[in-house]
Amino acid sequence: MRISPLLNRALKTGSIILILGMMWSCSFFGDRKKGEYTPIEFDLQKEVGPFQGLGANVPISFYSRRMKVLQTFNELGIKYIRVKRDAENWDDILALRASTSRLGVKWIYSLDAIPPQFLNNYGRLVDLKGFAIWWAEEVDELLYQDVPADYIELLDTPNILRGDSLSLSSDLFNDLIHATRAELDLRDFQNVAIVGPGLSTPSIAGDLETWYMDLDQAGFDMLPFWSVHCRENSIDGEQTGAALGTLFEYLDKIESRKPVMVSSFTTLETKFNDIQYPDPNQYDLLGNLNTFESYYYSATFSLPYALRVYSNTLDLLKHRQVVPFLHQLYDAPADVKYKKRSWGLLDLNGDEKPVFSLLSQLMKRVPKQATIVATLDPTHEGLNALTFKNQDEVIVTVLNESLGSKSIQISLHGVDRKLTVHSVELHYSPVLFPPEQGKKDMVETEVLEIKPRYDGANDTYVFALMLKPQSIFVGEFHYK
């Protein structure tokens, strides 16, 4: 029996539809053709640990009255600030303290250099007891001025040479902790804790490990947090998260694991996508020279810099018991005008730079009492991702730092209740300005629509989306 061409075509079409249907049913939860998307998977039952908020370094020499302090701290999830008092600027300190107290923000006082009266001619600490008394008197003065200290960090980056020698060595650090604690307790400041050692890097190469080894048990017990800096750049040859991970492996090995305050993190990179931007340590003079508030420009005004800092933030939070401190919350006039430095997340007018715009889009959505969930497998090709959750909400973010679009598929495993989509947004800059123009990249928001598929047998939600080049995705989901 001969089949007509029309019927033959219909049978072929039906067969194709049947085959495609079978393929779709088999691939319903992710087994699509290899290379069609990049899978990003989370298991919501595998938690890194509780999210303890972010910290920020705040230039205490200038309190920006143009900055909306309460809004800024809320949107960034700031729980700690680190300050250095180098002048009798009590009005500015009190104004800032009044704002942060309403939010329950804890203050850490640090010090750039040991007062010279306690040093010898080579810049080395010789009057240890005198320096301990100085710190106790400083805490007393802060309380008298109604800006009490929650924590003190005895010296910032004590492992950095000052002159021909270290002003503070690892063995002296242990002795100084004991002496300072005794002086604080003598004045009934038992509630003021000491953090440290404030090293310039999380590396434990060479003599750096002695800062953890030279503490006796009593000294170790006095520190509620370790503190270290973590500033990623290509010269170090190691990413921020990996460097911190190496430190934790070492601390676990010597049974010295503690929560870590990364007392300053950023990126020191200034070249992105073969484009060189002005170094924030020495910005370019551009535009209207009549006022320094509008003519300065550095890498911190660019989207590529913001994406790198965003990615470093995610990498740090993937480690248990870590509080990352933003390198500088806002630009201060003295830094910009006299030192040509521009590290802030806000400019001199209190306006957002791209790094603030991106971070705030995530942090203002992180729910209270959230825990952190990392991806099951490491991300590659310019992608990075992290999830926050509590009993009511799940916040997912994915970063695309590359110059190309990325088709991704996100899988949320271990979902024990129904999830509903609350908001799904993509944040990016439609135009990236070349550095010679001295213009700030503007961040725009695109609202997306997704339809997650639910696999009840595996307690999994799956959805796909396309990430624009150099963008971040933030999705907010609520349990029903």
Descriptive notes:
This protein has 480 residues and is α/β, with parallel strands linked by helices. The protein folds into two domains: 30-46 and 372-479, Golgi alpha-mannosidase II (Immunoglobulin-like, Sandwich), CATH 2.60.40.1180; 52-368, TIM Barrel (Alpha-Beta Barrel). It is built from twelve helices and 23 strands. The protein has helices at residues 5-26, 69-76, 90-103, 128-144, 170-186, 210-213, 217-222, 240-253, 292-295, 303-317, 333-339, 354-363, and strands spanning 38-43, 49-50, 54-57, 78-83, 106-109, 151-153, 193-199, 226-232, 260-267, 271-272, 275-276, 284-285, 296-297, 322-326, 371-373, 383-389, 393-400, 406-413, 419-428, 444-447, 453-455, 460-467, 471-479. The strands form five sheets. It has an eight-stranded parallel barrel with strand order 3-4-5-6-7-8-9-14, surrounded by five helices. A seven-stranded antiparallel beta sheet has the order 2-15-16-17-23-19-20, covered by helices on one side. Strand 8, helix 8 and strand 9 form a beta-alpha-beta unit. Helix 2 packs across helix 3 (90-103) and helix 4 crosses helix 5. The model is unreliable at 9-34 (pLDDT under 50).
